[in-house]
Amino acid sequence: MASSTHVTFPNKFLPYLLLAPQLAITIVFFYWPASQAIRQSVLREDPFGLSTQFVGLGNFKRILSDPNYLNSLQVTVVFSIATAVIAMGFALLFAVMADKVVRGKGIYRTLMIWPYAVAPAIAGMLWLFLFNPSMGTFAYMIRSAGYNWDPLLNSNQAMLLVVAAAAWKQISYNFLFFVAGLQSIPKSLIEAAAIDGAGETKRFWTIIFPLLAPTTFFLLVVNTVYAFFDTFGIIHAVTGGGPGKATETLVYKVYNDGFVNLILGDSAAQSVILMVIVIGLTAIQFRYVERKVHYG
Amino acid sequence: MTFRGTSLSLAFGFILASSTSSFAVTEISWWHAMTGANNEVVETLSKEFNESQSEYKVVPVFKGTYPETLNAGIAAFRAKQAPHIMQVFDAGTGVMMGAEGAIKPVADILSMGDTKFDKSLYLPGIVAYYSKPDGTMLSFPYNSSSPILYYNKDIFKKAGLDENNPPKTWPEVWEAAKKIKTSGAAKCGYTSTWLTWIHTENFAAWNNISYGTNENGIAGTDVELKINAPLYVKHFQELADLAKDGTFRYGGRTSEAKPLFLSGECGIFTESSGGLGDVVKSGMNYGTGQLPYDPEAKGAPQNTTPGGASLWVFAGKSDAEYKGVAAFFTFLSRTDIQARLHQVSGYLPVTLAAYEETKKSGFYDKNPAREIPIKQMMGKAPTENSKGVRLPNLPQVRDIENEEFENMLSGKQTAQQALDNAVKRGNAAIKQANGQ
Where does this protein have coiled-coil stretches (chain B) (predicted)? Predict the structure, then answer.
């Protein structure tokens, strides 16, 4: 289409001026803090910053040989996969269902999108109020039914709770994109398949699902990043990383080591590792996977 | 499980609001971690101080839980935006003591005020905990408390227990808890806040056994933990066994177990004496008793240690501001204020005069619960096991203990394993904090 026409500015200065606000934000909110983190990661400092010592890669060595760090890596992988799969699975199901609704489509969609407006910490509190074993309404019902619901001590239940809260919040976002994706699939294709005798399930898996691939891939990356980073508020409010270290994700550990245990060097080194992970994820997205996805 | 997220944003709102108010008077910012009934006390005290004079204005700002308040203060100090006064919980004392350049000893500040500072006016046990080994008082003991036993009299009656005779030892607590559970008087027999503070730190002092070397860290920062000694192991194994059928209910790492007692789900409860305000507010038919001890321990009960928090003053402020802080602390030390603070909040009075006055007024005859923590703390001269616990990273060590306790209560490990792990991990963390 318009790929060959390249808009150029005659003025050499203007493009930089137009980019300046974005650059300023990136420098202030990304480059500057990132450089601080890298600096801190090779230092050893007391909490108040009164004495500082250069330790090279000492902090990294200690973290990578710490079994708690490896445990937290494992927790993060389990948590992220579970959250992404559940959030995307339900969103796709709801989107396909909402697509079939004839009357009141708008209302259904609006209602489905609402939870996205809830801040992670609030979502966490909401789930906590419902499922906290000492005061939660649902927790009370589950316990009355004879099931020993105690996410304070049972690590699987704690994980289930944070995954549910994190996925619940993300379903709306995914739903929105899946609805848009479904709308862009030509109706004629589906009708043609129906005339050829393909059933509903077959139509979904052979036509709709493959054509949704770009959306699905985009959401996969977004959901992974969400599960890695944006769920801090939920974990903080619901489990605080417990019981034991059962729900301590990498981001939560950065917070815990830095702000609770006041070991700034270790915390900074961990955030540098996280930064490398994100850079890696983004590289995979652009260099490798994006090329293989079929864009309709 | 906390309200951290919301409280942070609330606190942020407060800062915005307070920074726009009048600049005519010298403002003294006071960051604190008090919620519920105790937050009202903070607000009232500040208001009264501000109305009592016109030179200074104390602005209290709620900063979240105790650890959050400490972190907020440290972050603010690094950003050169430190408040004047910060409330730091007992476990943070070691952290603050290690930061000599960042704080100004309260002893220095109080000598700047109009009245002369006399350390002997304050309760010796409390002041000793907040002083350097050489005796310099570093922080102002605002709210000192000690753990005591609470019980629900209605549940005791229903279970056929003597409602006027609370259990005195841990075995008696276990018996009573089992009876509450089996009789169906309540769903759970016993619960407790702060397992670390009550069941390890105070357990050590009250039973006169060592928590760690170097007088539990009071004499020096180089400490090896001793909390896997047989008496601890026995105690925690008993707790873990009771947790299996729900006779003991775990509520969380800090004060989260409180609703379990207030809602009548659990019959017996160990918690800070500072929690009394909320128990009274709930309107329940409650009784109190001394913290239970282990009858197998020699010399038990010894004495409990001060918990709660003290007020630290940051370095680098102007003399006028320090004078304001001194005026505020002098106001807080006034006998009538201390006596009321003690009677309303359940925290200990920090001056001897306030204790004497409360005693004279006959307050304890009507409210015996308020005298329990004082008697617990002052009953016997402290030994090297019972002066309190001070570590350069006590919050972190408590976290390690909590993690191991949770894995024990869920049945993943025995008490012996949990405590051995806690000692091993705790010792390594202390070494790292000491820069070794």
Answer: none
